[in-house]
Structure to design on (297 residues):
């Protein structure tokens, strides 16, 4: 993250300098998304998701998420353009996780300000998709977790030093230390939980498709595309899939398991592996890049 404004500036000027940055807009988007998700969660547990307030919070959460990750996408592509890497093939764009999340936000999305666009590009797309689909409360959970960590990191690195600058070399405040410890201690665990939530979300959409909820089959197909992209980019997602696969393998290893169930599972795994290999966007993008003729020296 960019450093906070100089400590020798008046407070009003420091706050103005902070608010004029794209990074502050990114932070405000995460705050809005987090507050709307929490508010919607309260209406969900009180069975009032059909109310106008619940619908407002649900849609606003995705608008904020799409705007937030779009800022990261813009920042990333602007940096690439400055380095002379502005031109990208469609396959390379699909493989970019920031683009994927912008699509998922149309359906539903992790990316810190300093991370590359390969992670943040996924969120805006899916957020826009969720924005215009029927309500799926589970889809808000991963976005809320991401927003929580981003808000905590920005507050610790930028907002607190702007409000209360510390002398150079001084020990960070107790609140800053607590936020840093929270992020360090719970980030990996939270991202693993998010990966399982995203897997559960796929099965939730599959159930909606089976019972023929309106628009569910289209939503399932789109989410499957972005789920595949998430798998290729996220080590947490890969680990969660491996854990689930191992548990099913152990359960079916029971001698009392019917052979038909074992065969069906093995055939399903084989079909999934073939589908994963056939939809490896990164590999296809690399092949396309290697196939492009090089400029004469």
């Amino acid at each position: 993250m960019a450093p906070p404004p100089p400590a020798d500036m008046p407070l009003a000027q420091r706050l103005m300098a902070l608010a004029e940055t794209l990074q502050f807009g990114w932070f405000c988007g995460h705050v809005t998304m987090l507050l709307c998700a929490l508010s919607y969660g309260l209406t969900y547990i009180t069975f009032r998701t059909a109310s106008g307030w619940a619908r407002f919070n649900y849609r606003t959460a995705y608008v904020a998420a799409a705007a937030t990750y779009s800022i990261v996408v813009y920042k990333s592509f602007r940096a690439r353009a400055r380095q002379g890497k502005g031109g990208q093939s469609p396959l390379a764009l699909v493989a970019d996780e920031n683009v994927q999340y912008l699509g998922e936000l149309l359906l539903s999305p992790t990316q810190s300000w300093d991370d590359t666009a390969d992670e943040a590009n996924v969120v805006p797309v899916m957020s826009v998709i969720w924005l215009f689909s029927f309500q799926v409360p589970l889809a808000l959970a991963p976005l809320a977790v991401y927003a929580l960590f981003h808000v905590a990191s920005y507050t610790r690195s930028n907002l607190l030093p702007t409000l209360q600058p510390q002398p150079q070399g001084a020990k960070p405040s107790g609140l800053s230390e607590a936020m840093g410890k929270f992020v360090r201690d719970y980030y990996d665990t939270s991202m693993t939980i998010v990966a399982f939530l995203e897997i559960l979300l796929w099965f939730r959409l599959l159930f909606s498709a089976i019972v023929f909820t309106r628009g569910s089959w289209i939503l399932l197909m789109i989410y499957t595309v972005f789920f595949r992209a998430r798998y290729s980019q996220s080590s947490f997602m890969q680990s969660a899939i491996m854990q689930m696969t191992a548990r099913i393998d152990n359960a079916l290893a029971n001698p009392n398991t019917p052979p038909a169930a074992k065969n069906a599972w093995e055939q399903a795994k084989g079909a999934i592996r073939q589908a994963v290999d056939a939809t490896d966007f990164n590999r296809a993008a690399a092949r396309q890049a290697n196939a492009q003729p090089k400029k004469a020296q």
